[in-house]
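Task: sequence in, structure out. Protein: Calnexin-like protein 1-like.
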Amino acid sequence: MSRALFLALLVVAAQAVHLDFSKGLDGWEHSEESKWVGRFVAEVPASLEKKALKVPDKAKHYGISTVLKKAVDPAKDLVLQYDLKLGNGLSCGGAYIKFVTADTAFTPKGLKDDTPYTVMFGADKCGDTNKVHLILRHKSSKTGKVEEKHLKSPPFVETDTKTHVYTAILRASNNSYAVLVDGEEKKAGSLFEDFEPSINPPETIPDPEDKKPADWVDEARIPDPDAKKPEDWDEDAPMEIPDEDAKKPEGWLDEEPAEVDDPDAKKPEDWDEEEDGDWEAPKIANPKCEKGPGCGEWKRPNKPNPAYKGKWSAPMIDNPAYKGVWKPREIPNPDHVKDPAPLTNIGKVGAAAIEIWTMDDGYFFDNIVISNDVAEAEKVRAKTWEPKKKIEDKLEEEERKKAEKEAAKAAEKEGSKDDGEDKEGGEEEKKEDKEEEEDTYADEL
Ligand SMILES: *[C@@H]1O[C@H](CO)[C@@H](O)[C@H](O)[C@H]1NC(C)=O
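Result:
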């Protein structure tokens, strides 16, 4: 076969789908699931130029999908990509895409939460949980069981309000995967090592029938049974004894009470002995005591008892009967199989679905790529995400400059005494800023 012909065949064989919403929701249909009342809309995000798929309302369940003209077969490498702009952030909700397994019986109206997918990929965040999911539904060639295999410790979702592009690469050539955010590799490795449960179930499993024997000894340390309390060990000796060396400090006032009647207090004029009882002056600290080392009865302080031993207990020793931590024995795993090509067992991608529940609104999906060719995803990123990034970075820079200017102005105002004139100047400057902003917009558009 000539090289040209071979390349031509390759090009034909590779599938590439790029879905955007610049022309609206053409080809996409909401699910008829009765509880999914959320309705996506196609709208141009503030500051950007083309329509994207918007989540208009919070606290709703959404389901929408589109069937691909031709299913994409992951057996020849699979790259999945989309971009996401969290206009109002993501406090709690899904922002991922389900790449639905090809099935002629599937219709978008019939999309359900358990519609089988080949890959679920993308952002999901709630509170401290923050994941870019990558989940494969893999079918065991031995048992026929389909199981969700989750990427362990997935990368984090970018939570600012700019557009970020998420890419998943599944390589059939060497059974590897990679997750990129904004074209940068965040996680990569082997399909056989980084998913849970493991794509290839282990050779052995703990025997569920095995039980810990009744006489199993799992105490590693025990009190020495041969140890005896020494003859001279007095368990009754007190912890503290009076300190016989202590002496009453000189100048101690044994006869003086700690408190005395306040000499300045007077019986109130309206005091009625019959009604109120005998009047007594309130007590104050005895001023004589403040000068000397102390007043009243002197008490001998205690000191630690050198003979104190407390309760005797035998020293701990290694238990000679210890058998270790009990574990059930391992038996051969009936599900064990080595799948040399797991990507041939996750099904073809026949549709793209966004089926989410979210507590946030104002976020946008766009530029969904489903392809056998990693270069295709790169091309789409360059063509669609980079221009968005340029606009958003510029805006951010302008906002930063504006904030700086305002902060400088505020500082200046604080320092100046002539308030009136200053204000006028400020107003004018603001007007100029606005004009400048409009100019840059015109450039972009
Ligand atoms: C698989 O191949 C790709 C490119 O062909 C390479 O970047 C990656 O490091 C390889 N991964 C593994 C786990 O071999």
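The pocket of 2-acetamido-2-deoxy-beta-D-glucopyranose is lined by residues 171, 173-174, 176, 190 (CB under 6 Å).
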